[in-house]
Amino acid sequence: MSTVIRARGLSRSYGALRALDGVDFDIESGRIVGLIGPNGAGKTTALKAVLGLGPFDGELEVLGLDPRRQRAELMQQVCFIADTAVLPRWMKVRQALDVVEGLHPRFRRERAAAFLARTEIPAGKRIGQLSKGMITQLHLALVMAIDAKLLVLDEPTLGLDIIYRKDFYAALLDDYFDEERTILLTTHQVEEVENILTDVMFISHGRVLLNESMAALGDKFLELAVRPDRADAVRALHPLSERQGLGRNVFLFEGRSREELAEHGDVRVPGVADLFVAKVRRASA
Amino acid sequence: MNQIAVLLRREFWEHRAIAIVPLVFGVLFVAAVLLSVVGLVRFSVDIGEMTITEMARHVRPDDWKPGMQVAFVSLAGIFQAVMIIVVLFYLADALYAERRDRSILFWKSLPVRDSTVVGSKFLTAAAVAPAFALAVFVATVVLIWLIAGITVLVLGESAALTAGPAALLAASAVMAWSLIAQSLWYAPVYAWVLLASAFARRAALLWVLLPPVGLIIAERTLLGSGHFARLLAERLSGAWELAFAMGGRRGLLMDEGAAHVHALPVLGELVTPGRFFGSPGLWAGLLVALAFLAAATALRRWRDEG
User: Fold this and answer.
1) pLDDT along chain B (306 residues), means of 10
2) Which of B2, B106, B108, B297 to mutate to test the interface with A (most CBs of A within 10 A)?
3) A55 → closest Cβ in B13, B112, B302
4) Long-range pairs for A276-281 at CB < 8 Å and ≥24 separation?
């Protein structure tokens, strides 16, 4: 396993706003990392820095390259889908294949063609005539046919209906991902990616609030559901957050043992979304 | 290398006017000649307005060659002027369109240097579009020559058919040199339009025009002088003054004084490459063009496409 991304003191300001405020993180190969944060948290700024799309301060190494100086070399190894529907609308599907084949030495056309054959996308149509779901499928087909080490996805399924979203992640997992590759993605729909992620990184106000593997998450964080009459006793244990469930009070704990909590009620591993809300609220409180 | 070829093809796909407009003009000219054969269109020649069939009767055999030369050179001028207009609009759009539709994020996901992309767009304007215009011109003239020549031959005169190839060759050579000189001379203009296209967040054409116009007005009001305006006028008036003897006018003028001089000067007398390449203005312009292209590249590289 090797380090794919190494960031130290990664910063970027837009005027007075610190979009990224001295962020440190490492991403190892063979991981699927979810970068999760509210709007304006700095997710996209961080991805842009990784892709060399914008200036930044601090140290950043992606696959051993400096995204500021070696962007073109970096793009040999890195693919990204920045948003849905950024494929040029004037282009025909066939031309898109021609262009990527001509410009990307690691693109394998037969792979993309095979993937497209499973969709209903006609090769002779202009991209502007395709539905949003089809455009995303096409983009995914192009990207999956590139033998890259790092794939960056920024809200890849935004605005797609649920069938396309499910298919998108299924294709990514089944046909693309392996231990040689790394995927870094941002999304608002945390629930959808939760079970494919190996790591999560929470980011808010330009700072990393949490950076854990999914496996470690279950050891570190626990959710406890208790009947209302036990609530006061549980509050004394300093939960991270509290919310109301169905006739239950649900508490989130960091660093408490399962046994300690089990005597008060039902213990389980929290969902990433709940954990995220708790962490962000705690950070801004 | 191969990447450049793919990028040039992209420009033709994306900006189809570069191909379509010259083709449309070619088709129109050929159609006009065809209509003239059946007597529906008259061309103005120096002995009056007439159709091709009338010309077959009235034009002296010796006049076909110089007449065709001058006609073809005029046609070349039209193709070139149209090409330049198309290219200027193309350049204003070239680095702006991909940002407007956000497809720049797709282009930037490919391992291509920004300098290569900007270079491919400049090359499209300065080399590919002129070469295409020349090719369409040659095809058009070949068709016109065949249609007119065969028509005139059927009416009993072979001079039009036999004079064609030499006239075509001369006109093509004049056009080729004119295109080369024009592209080199206009390089700073093209690069400026490309820079404005990289800079504009909207209304790219406005950004092409506003800074130079602003500079002219500023110089006029602050210094009371017009150096920049003159410089710009010299640049825009074209390379012909330098690249052709007598500014190229002699090639197009059929009348000189009372006597008809029905001849295009031989090529060696017409073109003045020594004077053109020896002009400091050419080299200064190329340096300015390089600076503008570097600025456009930096803008494309570092502009944050939010």
Assistant:
1) 89 94 95 83 72 77 79 90 95 92 90 94 96 96 91 83 86 91 94 95 90 92 89 85 67 43 62 86 94 95 75
2) B106
3) B302
4) A276/A36, A276/A190, A276/A202, A277/A241, A278/A240, A278/A241, A278/A252, A279/A202, A279/A204, A279/A209, A279/A210, A279/A240, A280/A37, A280/A38, A280/A202, A280/A204, A280/A209, A281/A241
Residue B137: partners with Cβ closer than 8 Å, 6 or more residues away: B22, B26, B75, B76, B79, B172, B175
Question: Would you give the DSSP letter of residue B271?
Answer: B
A132 burial (CB, 10 Å; 0-12 / 13-18 / 19+) is middle
Task: State the pairing for strand pair A221-226/A266-268.
Answer: antiparallel
Between CA B96 and CA A210 the distance in angstroms is 39
Instruction: Using CB atoms, pick whichever of A74, A89, A103 lies closest to residue B6.
Output: A103
How far, in Å, are A44, B108, B274 from residue B300 at the CA level?
19, 10, 37
Chain A contact probe: residue of B9, B110, B115 with most A CBs at under 10 A: B110
Q: Which residues of A61-72 are buried (b: 16+ CB within 10 A; e: fewer)?
A: bbbebebeeebb
Looking at the DSSP bridge assignments, the partners of residue A26 are A6
- Residue of chain B with shortest Cα separation from A105: B111
Residue B214 CA to residue B230 CA, distance in Å, equals 14
User: Which chain A residue lies closest to B104 (C-alpha atoms)?
Assistant: A86
- A271: which DSSP letter? P
* Interchain contact, A87 vs B106, CB within 8 Å: yes
The shortest CB-CB distance from A91 to any of B13, B302, B304 is to: B13
Q: What's the rounded Cα separation, in Å, for the pair A132 and A156?
A: 11
Q: Do A104 and B108 touch (CB under 8 A)?
A: no
Q: What's the pTM?
A: 0.88
| pLDDT tens-digit readout, A124-143 | 999 999 988 888 889 989 99
A82 contacts in chain B (CB < 8 Å): 105-106, 109
Distance from CA of B100 to the nearest CA of A (A): 10
- Nearest residue to A201 via CA among A50, A12, A17: A50
Task: Say if strands A199-204 and A32-36 run parallel, antiparallel, or are unpaired.
Answer: parallel
Closest CB to B3: pick one of A80, A87, A103: A103
**Chain B residue with minimal CA distance to A139?**
B106
Among candidates B117, B132, B144, which has minimal Cα distance to B28? B144
What is the strand order of the sheet A32-36 is part of? A78-81, A150-154, A182-186, A32-36, A199-204, A207-213
CB pairs below 8 Å between A and B: how many? 75
pLDDT, tens digit, for every residue of B76-90? Answer: 999 999 999 999 999
Measure CA A123 to chain center.
30
Distance CA A30, CA A4 (A): 9
Q: How far off is chain B from A3, nearest CA to CA, in Å? A: 21
Q: What distance in Å separates the CA atoms of residue A269 and residue A225, rounded to the nearest whole number?
A: 11
